[in-house]
Specification:
By secondary structure, this protein is α+β, with helices and mostly antiparallel strands. Helices cover 27% and strands 26% of the residues. The strands form four sheets. The protein has a five-stranded mixed sheet. A two-stranded antiparallel sheet has the order 1-2. Helix 1 crosses helix 4 (162-174). The longest helix has 16 residues, at 53-68. It is globular.
């Protein structure tokens, strides 16, 4: 039986979630998670038309980065959409700049994005709406903490404090 986590330092390595991926991004025709090897990664899945959850989560990521001060350059924020019809590379670029110039967005085909979502255990259920917002999604809102080798080390929920998130990132930077 596979273990759920292998211990390496203060945070376990989640052996059931994660893995490399290659998708169109806001910085290149195709980017891979492995392009960010050597940096701690904060990863979130969502969509730019999200009325409430995604902006709050991305604001939390920005707050964490701001708390890191000098270490900020060693942490890469990533955002993967699950709404490829609306979230083009250009739209992601426009949206993410409000949270920080260093945020990188990923899009792709529905199949590509579904495969990456499965790798990370992401839940996103489309719901047609008669409102001007169009399709809305019920979705998970975790922020995934990945170490410098791209391994999932923690999942932050909205109940996790900014201080806890900063402490966990700093523990990885000390490894």
């Amino acid at each position: 039986m596979l273990s759920v986590a292998a211990w390496a330092g203060p945070l376990p390595i989640n052996t059931r979630l994660g893995g490399d991926f290659a998708l169109p991004s806001t910085v290149a025709e195709t980017s891979r998670l492995s392009d960010f090897k050597g940096k701690v990664v904060l990863l979130n899945f969502g969509y730019t038309s999200c009325p409430d959850i995604c902006p709050m989560v991305l604001n939390r990521m920005a707050a964490v980065l701001n708390e890191l001060e000098d270490a900020r350059s060693k942490v890469q924020p990533l955002f993967i959409t699950f709404d490829p019809e609306r979230d083009t590379r250009e739209r992601l670029q426009q949206y993410l700049k409000y949270f920080g110039a260093d945020f990188v967005g990923f899009t792709g085909t529905g199949e590509q994005l579904a495969a990456v979502a499965r790798q990370y255990g992401v839940i996103a259920i489309a719901q047609k709406s008669d409102s001007a917002a169009g399709t809305l999604y019920t979705h998970s809102d975790y922020i995934y903490l990945l170490d410098q080798q791209g391994r999932v080390r923690a999942l932050f929920a909205k109940s996790d404090s900014i201080d806890k998130m900063v402490d966990d990132i700093e523990s990885l930077l000390e490894d």
